Amino acid sequence: MTPIPDTNDDLMAECDVETLSGSTKGGQRANKVETGVRLTHRPTGTVVVARRSRSQFRNKALAVAELRRRLEEANRPVTPRRPTKPTKGSKRRRLEAKRQRAEKKALRQRPDW
């Protein structure tokens, strides 16, 4: 469990920042200007890419928000699963539905003469 810094500046200090050009249609402007941002969080190895906007500043803010969300998701404690047994009623209903389905399919077949 890695502690998440409170401010975005501290979080950015823990990251490697790369800029990249958008890989979409858009011609000269999209291929020339590096507005996409890739953040690699060094302690966890989490990689986030943001290319939604034409503004590098806005993409950086989006990437930091997504990185913060992913780190919080990774730090959330996992509640152990408690196995449960199906009730007798649910088992009976499932078998009854199976029996009805089988009868319906049997009626579709041609009779033996």
Structural account:
The mean pLDDT is 89. A 3-stranded antiparallel beta sheet has the order 1-2-3. Strand 2 and strand 3 form a beta hairpin. It contains 4 helices and 3 strands; from the N terminus they run αβαββαα. The chain has 113 residues and is of the alpha+beta class. Helix content is 47%, strand content 14%.
Task: Summarize the helices and strands and which ones pair or pack.
Layout: H1 8-13, E1 15-20, H2 27-32, E2 36-41, E3 47-50, H3 56-75, H4 88-108
Brief account:
The protein is an alpha+beta fold.
How many whole angstroms does the radius of gyration measure?
A: 27 Å
Structural class: alpha+beta
List SSEs in N-to-C order: HEHEEHH
**Tally of separate helices:** 4
Helix content range: 40-55%
Strand content: 5-15%
Number of strands: 3
Strand order of the largest sheet: 1-2-3
What global shape is seen? elongated
Question: How can the largest sheet be summarized?
Answer: 3 strands, antiparallel
Name the average pLDDT: 89
Task: Provide the low-confidence segments as ranges.
Answer: none
Distance between the termini: 71 Å
Which descriptors apply to this entry?
single chain; 47% helix; 14% strand; alpha+beta; 3 strands
